[in-house]
Amino acid sequence: MTGAHSGGCRVDQRTAARPSRPTPRGAAAGSGPVPTIFGSHLHHTTSSRRHDSLTSNSSIRHRNSSLLSVTRVEAEEVVPSSWFDDQLADTYRRLRMPRGLLERLAGIRERRGWAEGSSFDDGAARAGRAALEQAGVAPEQIGLLINGSVTRDNFEPAVAVGIHHALGLPRHALNFDMTNACLGFVNGITVASSMIDAGAIDYALIVCGEDPSPWHETALRMLNRPDSTRDEVLTQFATLTLGSGAAAAVIGRADRHPEGHRILGSVSRAGTEHKDLCIGGDAGQGMATDATGLLTHGLKLVTDAWEEAHREGWDWTDMDAYVTHQISTSHTNAIVDAVGIDRDRIPLTFPYWGNVAAAALPMTLALQAETLEPGQRVLCMGVGSGLNTGLMEIAW
């Protein structure tokens, strides 16, 4: 039962009123690079997992797990960053702030929004249906459904149950949400791969759908108050970089699918002392982000995980593609400089999709998959508020 449950009634998380909006502790007010959004990573003991007192990483090597398909659904409506400039014109004028901040600082020209009659969970179901078809796997073969989205209309039931019903999945299929900020989808693949390694299931479907539009509305309402400040504009900046979309992937047994893309393993690392840097409440409460703190500590967390992983035997210096969580130009440049990877091998989708939260990485992977060739190596680099990071290698 959730803390928001009352007498078995439906509680709408996106509109429920709260006493006050969240404030990131220790926020560096008034300045800093583009705000970011981050999440976490789980592990399962049935795969080959290394952890001892001398390491801070959780390192898992999967034995029999393959990615059979990955799909994306782009939300139908285009929302240019100039639209937010128009909505905030009076506030920018009063605070003497220039138009074009979202595009100039974040590199985001536009993002997507769901059309009337569409929704994030409908998008997740559409992506899931396409992933099953692409993989050649029937709904009745699925033993596990994980929804990794941040977005939800209610605290309960799980978003996964509606998707399970929409896809006609069997009653024996486990189904639940794995909510972990922008790392939920990567977490889901790790858990599913571990269950496949253990022989508990043969196939898993991971889905994710996002819709930040209610949070956009809250941010605009806050910033258009006559007493809003420059610091509040910067605190709400990350909210306006978010976009809508959906993704899905089918994971299956490698020994039954030689055509699949082997999920070799993953490394995760926690930095939960930074849990207050990005706090997202329900839509009425909004989200508050410490941009400088997230970029600084998030980058260090990824770098520490990367360096220790290399000492443990992982070699990611010459991958064919680095599929990162899509945040901003500043974040991408910082990652390139910190770990010394080839910028040309990083596909960028945030300029036209924005930051699609937990769907950002798999949507980008689905796009990149159109040009990947057998034998190439891919590193998925996820990070989410909390802070947590997850790095996952796939052999295409």
Automatic annotation (TrEMBL):
<dbReference type="GO" id="GO:0004315">
    <property type="term" value="F:3-oxoacyl-[acyl-carrier-protein] synthase activity"/>
</dbReference>
<dbReference type="InterPro" id="IPR013751">
    <property type="entry name" value="ACP_syn_III_N"/>
</dbReference>
<feature type="region of interest" description="Disordered">
    <location>
        <begin position="1"/>
        <end position="59"/>
    </location>
</feature>
<dbReference type="GO" id="GO:0044550">
    <property type="term" value="P:secondary metabolite biosynthetic process"/>
</dbReference>
<dbReference type="InterPro" id="IPR013747">
    <property type="entry name" value="ACP_syn_III_C"/>
</dbReference>
<keyword id="KW-0012">Acyltransferase</keyword>
<feature type="domain" description="Beta-ketoacyl-[acyl-carrier-protein] synthase III N-terminal">
    <location>
        <begin position="176"/>
        <end position="268"/>
    </location>
</feature>
<feature type="domain" description="Beta-ketoacyl-[acyl-carrier-protein] synthase III C-terminal">
    <location>
        <begin position="310"/>
        <end position="395"/>
    </location>
</feature>
<protein>
    <submittedName>
        <fullName>3-oxoacyl-ACP synthase III</fullName>
    </submittedName>
</protein>
<dbReference type="Pfam" id="PF08545">
    <property type="entry name" value="ACP_syn_III"/>
</dbReference>
<dbReference type="GO" id="GO:0006633">
    <property type="term" value="P:fatty acid biosynthetic process"/>
</dbReference>
<dbReference type="InterPro" id="IPR016039">
    <property type="entry name" value="Thiolase-like"/>
</dbReference>
<dbReference type="Pfam" id="PF08541">
    <property type="entry name" value="ACP_syn_III_C"/>
</dbReference>
<feature type="compositionally biased region" description="Low complexity">
    <location>
        <begin position="14"/>
        <end position="30"/>
    </location>
</feature>
<keyword id="KW-0808">Transferase</keyword>
